[in-house]
Amino acid sequence: MREPNRERVPPARRTGLRQRLAELRGPEVPPQPLDARALAALAANPGCKRRAILDGAGVNKTALASALGSPSAFGQSQFAFMRGNAFEARVKADGGAELLRLVHEKLDAGAVPPTTGTVPDLSAVGPEGRTAHTALALREATDAGVWTLLDHPLLALDVAGSPAFLEPDAVVVHPDGSWTVVEIKSFPMLDGSADAAKVGAAARQAAVYVLALERVAARLGAGPEGRAGDAAHAEATPLTVPAPSDLPTTALATPAEAPTETLGTPGAQDGIRTRPPEVRHTVLLVCPKDFSNLPTASAVDVRKQRSVTRRQLDRLTRIEDIADLLPEGTCFSPDLPTADLTAAVESVPATYAPECLSACELAFHCRDHSRAEGAVTSLGRSLRAELGGLTTVDDVLSAARGETGDPTDPAVAALRRAAALRAEALGSGARPGAEPPGSTEGLRAEASGRAAC
């Protein structure tokens, strides 16, 4: 398998790319930071060049969708934000004593109990300064060998040739020098279990943080990054995380590149670090217990999510390659006239699927255009995969009626068989006003009904 291109971008080219992205965003428009939730959604749909260039340029997709006339209801309510912030403040109160207790109880019961913890100051000027300060704090905490809580550290991750700055809720450094990502969510954990879809989304988000932490760990030492077998550290049974429905099952296998040896505690010899710090692949999910505001936690194994996310991010087309194909003068500023803005957005190809409705602010706009073009992806990725080379609804209907298509194609043969069965059923007991057998409207309604199910 060909390794992804990881060549170092020359400074002059990097400066030119940033200027180009600023022109795409709009000279007076501030960049929208790319968070882990957006990055996980981007990794789940790596073929969408539209989202890749918009996220890479820092375009505010919520404002863009409203300017296009397709406002999105995607996102959290103000009440959810307030409740989540209040719960997070409670979890981290008293120097993170309760949070460190939960990490010790669920992930590292064999370590020294955290009677007191260190909370370093991570404030700095600019994202680059905060990222450097976070790396310094992680190194010092690893060498100190004491429980340390990093509150909202800032991490950097290269995404399609453009840096993305990520801010996890917390990172805990164990006495043995290993690092654990902590995700704090406001949805409840009832009788020790939580909503599977929400746990899965949190796991994919945490997997992005794990990848970013591994980059930091690799710069602090030499050798493999993290280890895949640290699930044994968890003293509690981890929550079962559902695999993403839109990804093939084979992509969820345990990463074969994981080292089989135990890394152990990062050591130093003659003042030189011999191994990088260990980034644990079991994260801690902290949620309210039942219907109270008291925190409880569970260990979540994110090895599969990390493997899939890394593979998908490596597949992303580099931002500069997409930008080079855009027409001269392309700009996504929401202040532009609607016609010009629509033309700019449509100049970048999109890969729409119904799953985008829960992950992307431009989903309504892309859905309308996908339906207008008759793309079968608007009916679902699973249906698109079964239809093979038939990419539009008109192609599917024409093949079903026997007008086009190769009869030896399994998809075409199945469509014609289904059309014959449908015609036979409607012909024997047709209702008044029903669509005639094989009509475009009838087959289109049937396909839409199956996708809705």
Helices and strands in order:
Elements lengths: L10 H15 L10 H9 L4 H9 L3 H7 L10 H14 L1 H15 L18 H19 L3 E4 L3 E5 L2 E5 L3 E4 L5 E6 L11 H25 L47 E2 L2 E2 L8 E7 L6 E7 L1 H13 L3 H6 L13 H9 L16 H11 L7 H7 L5 H8 L9 H19 L11 H13 L1
Parallel strand pairs: 5-8
Antiparallel strand pairs: 1-4, 2-3, 4-5, 6-7, 8-9
Protein name: Secreted protein
Describe this structure in words.
The chain is α+β, with helices and mostly antiparallel strands and 453 residues long. It folds into 3 domains: 31-75 and 326-373, no CATH class; 78-314, no CATH class; 381-425 and 438-452, no CATH class. Helix content is 44%, strand content 9%. It has helices at 11-25, 36-44, 49-57, 61-67, 78-91, 93-107, 126-144, 196-220, 303-315, 319-324, 338-346, 363-373, 381-387, 393-400, 410-428, 440-452, and strands spanning 148-151, 155-159, 162-166, 170-173, 179-184, 268-269, 272-273, 282-288, 295-301. Strands 1-4-5-8-9 form a 5-stranded mixed beta sheet, sandwiched between helices. The chain has a two-stranded antiparallel sheet with strand order 2-3. The chain has a two-stranded antiparallel ribbon with strand order 6-7. β4 and β5 (179-184) form a beta hairpin. α2 (36-44) packs across α8, α8 (196-220) packs across α9 (303-315) and α14 (393-400) crosses α15 (410-428). It is globular and about 75 Å long. The relative contact order is 0.13. It comes from Streptomyces phaeochromogenes.
